[in-house]
Structures are given as structure tokens and as C-alpha cells.
User: What shape does this take?
Amino acid sequence: MWNEKLINGDSFFDRDFDILLPDEVRVSSYTHWTPILIIEKAVEFINEKKCQKVLDIGSGVGKFCLIASSLSKAHFHGIEIRKQSHLYAISLAKTTQLNNVSFSNTNVCDLDFSPYDCFYYFNPFFENINPNRSIDKNILLNEQLHQKYVAHIKSELNKKGIGTVLITYHTNQTEVPNSFELVYEFENLDLCFWIKKE
Assistant: This one.
């Protein structure tokens, strides 16, 4: 199992995850995949707040969910619109013995947010307004979709109960509903922890 080092508390680096995937996929690592340092800090907060079900919006090849689920008892679910990225996540999950991680090939607008008490949000729609940073050309990208997705997520998060956790990474704070309060920020890492207060 590639994640055995994580479970045992041994050193595990971004490159250790990267080599699990083909070269043509691995090129997205630096720009689009969450660094392990960020995942570890996010998991510390998730465990501290005793979150039960975490949703990763735009999970890509599954790095955040797979590593986080190796470090936490919470259940992590990743949604990804790209079929091929989703299939890589499923394939990697099968090589572990984890029972607290799952993935779906789903558009965020079609997902029920109600089961989740924590959300991880790594600016998943930025490529819609900056196509030069896109992963590939396999899905439609435009500014209208960016606005649609951000508005939908803000609306769904506003429906959540008090105490809901939101973790954002490299995300514009205008995309966070006013009902969430920033409780901690790693400014040098652009990592923010939010709690729904109203």
C-alpha cells in the first residue's frame, strides 16, 4: 500500500504521491494538487473540530482525500467533473485499504450538500477565468460558468448549520459567504479556516 507510510507516521512527500501517476498527469501537480503540508494542516483542524464528513469540491486525481483519509477518522468524499481525473482517484483508492474515502464524477451543481459538515475548497473553478492555467481542454470553460459555480456553492453553504467548517486554499475570500467567520489564517500559505456563525 502506497499510503502505509502516512498511516505509520513516516515521512511522505509530494513527489511520493506524484510518482503514482503517469507523466502526462503529473505535470498538473504543482498548480492543481494540494501540497501535503497543506493537507496535514487541514486535517489537524478537521480532527480538532471533530468533523465527520468532508467534501472536497473539485478533487482531481484524489490527492487531498486520499492523504487526508490516511490521517483522519473522518470520511472524505471528492467530487470531480473530469472523468479521467476521477478514474485516477478511484484507481489509487483501490490500492489502499481505506474505508473512509470515496469519489464521484459529479458536477457540483448536482450534488446534495446536506450530508457534509466540512468543505475543502481549493479554488476549483479558477481555470474558467484563466484558461492558460487549465488542466486540459476536455471540459467547457468560461467566465459565466465560474460565476455560476461560485454562486451555487455560496448558496449551498449558506443553507448549512451553525458550526459548519470551511477550509479554503488559494481562494478569493469574496467567494466565501458572509455567514462564515474566519477563525484562523496561515497568511504565508494562503490557507484559511472558517466556521459558520449564522
Q: What stands out?
A: The first strand starts at residue 53 and ends at 57. The chain has eight helices and seven strands. The chain has one domain: 4-196. The CA atoms of residues 19 and 75 lie 25 Å apart.
